[in-house]
């Protein structure tokens, strides 16, 4: 605002007998101030606010002020947000009669102005005298969860009441329609945003933001634990990628003392194995016999007291003979050091912080399975050419705190990451560093100071094809490799054994399998980097790989998520025709009904998405061999949609242009867009949901 205008406004106030009444008269007679932004009304109001501070005699009291307050209250619900605070301050609404203010807000609420009623309540701090459920329900139905958070932000008691209410709504036996029925005619009503899944996400967000004890929300917590149980059973009995010991660890910590979850566990065990296995777990968890099905209770009586739970099932584990299928550490076991004291750790640092050193860095934490809070790093792995150091972070941080030297760990980590003369190798460093910052708040800016780092996740996006020295062998029904394991398979010929990935990394002592897994995860980065630097062309990388990576990664490498609108996918999403030289003419447009595809077993999400758009889709099951896709494609004239390594094998088994590789790091929607663009599929409204889902 120009100085001249400000001076003119102030002269105007000085001439008025009653500036407060004058401002109201001006605002009431003009609509200019109702728009967004800095209107003339806004300028005059804020100038008056400043002018009053300089002229303390101006503020009024008594009946005259009450009348002005009544008039200004009537205007506040139409006010732009930037005028609320100045008007409340000028007309001293905080001193107005509280019952009168509550009555006014109640009137707004009854008119259906729920948002305005809530905002005014926040500004006037009326929440303690209101019903939190009544005020927040219509806001949640209008998808205004952020306003609900602000409404309870300064009142711990209201936070607890709101969380208990939301938790009640998430009880599986609760009928959510009982809540929504009175608000059927609500403007901007979004019933699809008001369901248990959305509400339980909100509960977790509030628990974390307000640091409330999760025990306050047993329904939401139990449902999340039940999903974790189902996931653990899937990993153990369907995928068969989790060892018995590992699985038992997680089952024990998930179920805990909850009788309801113990009952769910017994039912799941009966579905996946037998009554004896269920009885062993019932005994381990001390579940009361009256809670158990009759067959399980009978087995429990027959069981002898055992110190240790035996095998629950004969689910296939990876025997030692299968270890030859996986990447093996090339250094002796005695060169892996598990460090729990600062004396040992300082010796490790002397070796790591050498100019010219190349260090593989990785971190492990206990899986949170979607519970509250960020994961805290339990193990920091540092791999050098001849040895690997595993740092027991919880123990080291505890010792440093006890000795009054909290800055020991942050100092070392910052020296390591900011030294351009030391090459740090990682895979998905950004995620690792955010977990490290959650573990030790002094490390929250490490990422901004990074120099000399190589994030192999960024390189992974460019790596093309197999290692020249190894051919691919199918490995039965095992899950397709992904992430770092797939890169290790590409470059070194064998994938990582990921059976320990979901271990409880906080439990001590670590098992031998965990130690070997953790060391391999960090050490393989050194071998990948060495191989790629020696022969970048074999992997579809530029010959200047070393020059382009080392010491220049001070900025966070960004995963290439989005495809350019007109562009074909990069090497990780290769074209079915093989490498292109000149851009060719796009194929003639077709409708979704004319496209018939078969989706490989890691692309079920993409398949379901395409089916929603009317494409003729067949999906491979998780246990199907990739080669089944080629059989179906030949028999039924379908195009194969696949990703990563299987593309190399499958494209040679079908005709030219009948196999397409999508980018496996994309979400299903983006993969679908990639497919539609490539085959020039034009989707109309009539195609959507035209096929049986």
Automatic annotation (TrEMBL):
<dbReference type="GO" id="GO:0006139">
    <property type="term" value="P:nucleobase-containing compound metabolic process"/>
</dbReference>
<feature type="compositionally biased region" description="Polar residues">
    <location>
        <begin position="565"/>
        <end position="575"/>
    </location>
</feature>
<dbReference type="InterPro" id="IPR002562">
    <property type="entry name" value="3'-5'_exonuclease_dom"/>
</dbReference>
<dbReference type="InterPro" id="IPR037432">
    <property type="entry name" value="Mut-7_DEDDy_dom"/>
</dbReference>
<keyword id="KW-0269">Exonuclease</keyword>
<protein>
    <submittedName>
        <fullName>MUT7 Exonuclease</fullName>
    </submittedName>
</protein>
<feature type="compositionally biased region" description="Basic residues">
    <location>
        <begin position="553"/>
        <end position="563"/>
    </location>
</feature>
<keyword id="KW-0540">Nuclease</keyword>
<keyword id="KW-0378">Hydrolase</keyword>
<dbReference type="InterPro" id="IPR002782">
    <property type="entry name" value="Mut7-C_RNAse_dom"/>
</dbReference>
<feature type="domain" description="3'-5' exonuclease">
    <location>
        <begin position="336"/>
        <end position="537"/>
    </location>
</feature>
<dbReference type="InterPro" id="IPR012337">
    <property type="entry name" value="RNaseH-like_sf"/>
</dbReference>
<dbReference type="Pfam" id="PF01612">
    <property type="entry name" value="DNA_pol_A_exo1"/>
</dbReference>
<dbReference type="GO" id="GO:0008408">
    <property type="term" value="F:3'-5' exonuclease activity"/>
</dbReference>
<dbReference type="Pfam" id="PF01927">
    <property type="entry name" value="Mut7-C"/>
</dbReference>
<dbReference type="InterPro" id="IPR052408">
    <property type="entry name" value="Exonuclease_MUT-7-like"/>
</dbReference>
<feature type="region of interest" description="Disordered">
    <location>
        <begin position="550"/>
        <end position="588"/>
    </location>
</feature>
<dbReference type="InterPro" id="IPR036397">
    <property type="entry name" value="RNaseH_sf"/>
</dbReference>
<dbReference type="GO" id="GO:0003676">
    <property type="term" value="F:nucleic acid binding"/>
</dbReference>
């Amino acid at each position: 605002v120009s100085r001249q205008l400000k001076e003119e406004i102030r002269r105007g106030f000085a001439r008025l007998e009653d500036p407060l009444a004058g401002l109201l008269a001006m605002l009431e007679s003009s609509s200019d101030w109702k728009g967004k932004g800095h209107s003339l009304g806004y300028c005059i109001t804020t100038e008056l606010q400043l002018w009053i501070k300089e002229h303390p005699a101006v503020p009024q009291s008594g009946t005259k002020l009450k009348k002005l307050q009544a008039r200004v209250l009537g205007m506040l619900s139409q006010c732009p947000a930037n005028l609320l605070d100045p008007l409340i301050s000028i007309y001293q609404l905080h001193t107005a009669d509280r019952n009168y203010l509550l009555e006014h807000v109640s009137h707004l609420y009854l008119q259906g102005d729920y948002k305005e009623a809530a905002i005014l309540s926040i500004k006037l701090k009326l929440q303690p005298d209101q019903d939190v459920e009544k005020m927040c329900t219509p806001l949640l139905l209008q998808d205004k969860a952020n306003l609900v958070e602000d409404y309870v932000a300064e009142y711990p008691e209201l936070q607890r009441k709101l969380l208990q209410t939301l938790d009640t709504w998430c009880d599986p036996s609760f009928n959510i329609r009982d809540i929504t029925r009175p608000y059927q005619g609500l403007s901007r009503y979004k019933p699809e945003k008001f369901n248990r899944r959305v509400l339980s996400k909100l509960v977790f967000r509030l628990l974390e933001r307000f640091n409330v004890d999760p025990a306050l929300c047993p329904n939401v917590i139990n449902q999340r634990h039940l999903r974790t149980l189902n996931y653990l059973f899937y990993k153990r009995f369907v995928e068969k990628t989790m060892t018995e010991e590992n699985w038992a660890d997680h089952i024990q910590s998930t179920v805990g003392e909850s009788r309801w979850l113990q009952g769910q566990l017994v039912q799941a065990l009966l579905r996946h194995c037998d009554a004896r296995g269920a009885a062993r777990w019932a005994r381990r968890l001390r579940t009361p016999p009256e809670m158990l099905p009759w067959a399980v209770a009978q087995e429990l009586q027959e069981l002898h007291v055992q110190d240790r739970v035996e095998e629950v099932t004969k689910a296939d584990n990876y025997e030692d003979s299968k270890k030859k299928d996986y990447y093996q550490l090339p250094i002796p076991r005695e060169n892996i050091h598990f460090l729990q004291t600062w004396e040992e750790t300082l010796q490790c640092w002397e070796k790591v912080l050498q100019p010219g050193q190349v260090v593989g860095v990785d971190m492990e934490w206990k899986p949170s399975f979607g519970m509250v809070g960020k994961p805290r790093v339990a193990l920091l792995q540092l791999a050098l050419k001849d040895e690997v150091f595993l740092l027991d972070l919880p123990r080291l941080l505890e010792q440093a705190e006890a000795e009054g030297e909290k800055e020991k760990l942050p100092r070392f980590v910052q020296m390591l990451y900011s030294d351009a003369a030391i090459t740090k190798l990682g895979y998905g460093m950004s995620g690792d560093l955010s977990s490290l910052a959650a573990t030790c708040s002094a490390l929250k800016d490490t990422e901004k100071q990074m120099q000399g780092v190589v994030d192999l996740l960024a390189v992974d996006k460019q790596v093309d094809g197999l290692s020249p020295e190894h051919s691919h062998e199918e490995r039965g029904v095992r899950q397709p490799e992904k992430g770092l394991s797939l890169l290790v398979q590409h470059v070194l010929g064998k994938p990582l054994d990921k059976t320990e990935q979901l271990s409880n990394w906080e439990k001590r002592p670590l098992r031998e399998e965990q130690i070997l897994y953790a060391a391999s995860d960090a050490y393989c980065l050194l071998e990948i980097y060495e191989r790629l630097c020696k022969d970048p062309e074999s992997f579809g990388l530029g010959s200047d790989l070393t020059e382009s990576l080392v010491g220049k990664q001070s900025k966070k490498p960004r995963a290439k998520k989005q495809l350019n609108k007109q562009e074909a996918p990069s090497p990780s999403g290769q074209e079915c025709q093989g490498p292109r030289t000149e851009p060719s003419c796009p194929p003639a447009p077709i409708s979704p009904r004319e496209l018939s595809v078969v989706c490989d077993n890691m692309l079920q999400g993409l398949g379901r998405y395409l089916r929603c758009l009317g494409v003729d889709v067949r999906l491979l099951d998780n246990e199907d061999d990739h080669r089944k896709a080629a059989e179906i494609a030949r028999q039924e004239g379908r195009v194969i949609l696949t990703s990563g390594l299987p593309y190399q094998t499958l494209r040679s088994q079908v005709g030219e242009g009948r196999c397409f590789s999508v980018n496996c790091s994309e979400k299903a929607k983006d993969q679908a867009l990639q497919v539609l663009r490539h085959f020039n599929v034009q989707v109309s409204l009539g195609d959507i949901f035209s096929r049986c889902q």
